[in-house]
Inverse folding.
């Protein structure tokens, strides 16, 4: 009976093979031991609506990559604001208005000086101011530019009014010194204004020629005022040439 023994001896081996095969089939589709099951994927959320419900809300600007220091660099969301405070060039009518303010201021201050001063040099200077600035003022209508107000002309008119108010409160030698010092300061300011603001911006040839004729007259007045200032103070007058500012 050798064949029956062989069959009986082979049966345990076959059983072991079949059991191993079943185990392999059971573990083939399972995740490795100790691993977490895959997370469920949530459905995409619908886009947020705007406050009026008309459409998607505006998205917040993205943050740019981090800088070398590790701080996030915010995204640029707008252009830089334009620089403000730069005054526009004066028009010819505004330039004529500034020239009139300068002339009017000198005339008003000179009228006070002729009334209050007893110093012949001071009254002579005041008379010259009324004559020269009066002539310049009378020439302006012939330019045909008219006159327009500007911040500069308003500032000059306000300064002149303040000077007149101070002069009305002064008396005697103190008045003379204050008036002549005001003429030094005022004519230097007039010269600076002429060379920095008026001449560079004047477009009309007639207006430019008018301003060019004013410049040597203003320089003459400034030199005379400096001489009188030194004389009234009992010191040597400042004989340096008038400072002509340029742009």
């Amino acid at each position: 009976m050798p064949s029956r023994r062989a069959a009986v001896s082979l049966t345990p081996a076959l059983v072991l093979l079949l059991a191993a095969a079943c185990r392999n089939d059971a573990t083939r589709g399972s995740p490795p031991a100790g691993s977490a099951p895959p997370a469920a994927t949530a459905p995409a959320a619908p886009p947020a609506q705007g406050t009026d419900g008309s459409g998607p809300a505006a998205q917040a600007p993205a943050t740019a990559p981090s800088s070398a220091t590790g701080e996030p660099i915010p995204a640029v969301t707008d252009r830089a604001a334009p620089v403000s405070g730069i005054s526009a060039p004066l028009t010819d009518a505004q330039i004529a208005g500034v020239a009139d303010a300068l002339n009017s201021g000198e005339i008003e201050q000179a009228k006070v000086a002729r009334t209050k001063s007893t110093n012949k040099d001071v009254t002579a200077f005041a008379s010259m101011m009324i004559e020269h600035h009066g002539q310049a003022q009378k020439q302006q209508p012939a330019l045909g530019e008219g006159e327009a107000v500007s911040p500069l002309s308003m500032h000059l008119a306000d300064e002149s009014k303040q000077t007149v108010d101070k002069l009305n409160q002064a008396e005697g030698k103190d008045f003379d010194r204050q008036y002549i010092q005001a003429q030094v300061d005022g004519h230097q300011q007039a010269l600076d204004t002429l060379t920095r603001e008026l001449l560079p911006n004047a477009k009309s040839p007639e207006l430019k020629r008018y301003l060019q004729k004013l410049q040597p007259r203003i320089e003459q007045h400034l030199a005379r005022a400096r001489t009188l200032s030194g004389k009234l103070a009992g010191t040597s007058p400042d004989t340096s040439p008038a400072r002509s500012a340029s742009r």
